[in-house]
Amino acid sequence: MTNILTPEIQDVGLFFSKFSDAVVPIIILSAALITGILLLLLLFGLLIGYARRTNKPALEEIVRKVRSPALFLLPVLTVLILLQTMGVPDSIIPVLRHVMVITIIVFIAWLLLRIIHGIVSLMMQRYDISVQDNLKARTIITQVTIIQRIVGVSIIIVSAAAILMTFETIRQIGVGLLASAGVIGIIIGFAAQKTIAMVLAGIQIALTQPVKIDDVVIIEGEWGRIEEITLTYLVVRIWDLRRLVVPITYVIENPIQNWTRSSANLLGTVYVYADYRVPVDILRKQLRSILEKTDLWDTQVCGLVVTNLKEETVELRALMSAENSSKLWDLRCLVREELLTYIQKYHADCLPRSRIEITKMQESSRQ
After folding, report:
1. Residue 18: pLDDT above 90?
2. Which CATH architecture best describes the domain 194-258?
């Protein structure tokens, strides 16, 4: 059959054929991306709406956290699936596929980290450590915070290892070094034994919890609150707003004072030194009267007893309780001032005094 098409018409047909071969895959890819993103946004919108209608803030928080990495992950997955249909030269496909696999690993790690962060945020909202009775909240938040760091570091390490294993040369080098891995492990173990010990101590604190977030402690003679606990150190916020950074192993290896180990309630003492003529019963009633007039007292413990008899004074111990260490400090200062004022005003003769015996001097003067 004779070809009746002119060369010009054949060139136009060839152009449109090449144009369609290049444009059609792009149109398919664009349509798939737009459809996937719209469906994903619709899904997130439905989940957020459902969470609001059913009053489930936990679900809404997690959806919001994973929305961004999911929107980034979807286009890469779509391109990877449709890569063979896009008309890309065969020589470039392996490189593109390798890049996309690495990108997917990064986005999956990001997605997992966001999920963990969302769960931790929910725990922080559910367990408030600003309330008075916050022992359970401090326990859970301490565990969650340390576990979050452990899991986060693990995800990053596993992701980095997965990315490195996608390179053939690195995989072959790893196989070649496998025989000497034992020696290398021993060397690394000796070099990083302190770091490993600190990490293990951090895990031990997360499990046994000798200290927790917001615990009141005395470390190295400094009074303060635990502000932060990591795998390698903890931060103590001292009463004058200084920060004491302590290696995590210090808590395991050294004794420390923890005033809120099992409860935030504390007992406090005030010592009064007076003359032997001091009316103990009256001071005992005055102590209760002082405590009943202040909100610093938690109404649990109130007592005044004689704890020692010295050569010139009587030692009285006033015992009281408060909801936390801050209130207890203010309460002790208040009781000292009030008892001192009361003794000065109504029993000035009971203030400490020194006595001198001068009987022999008087007898000698008479002679």
Report:
1. no
2. Roll (2.30)
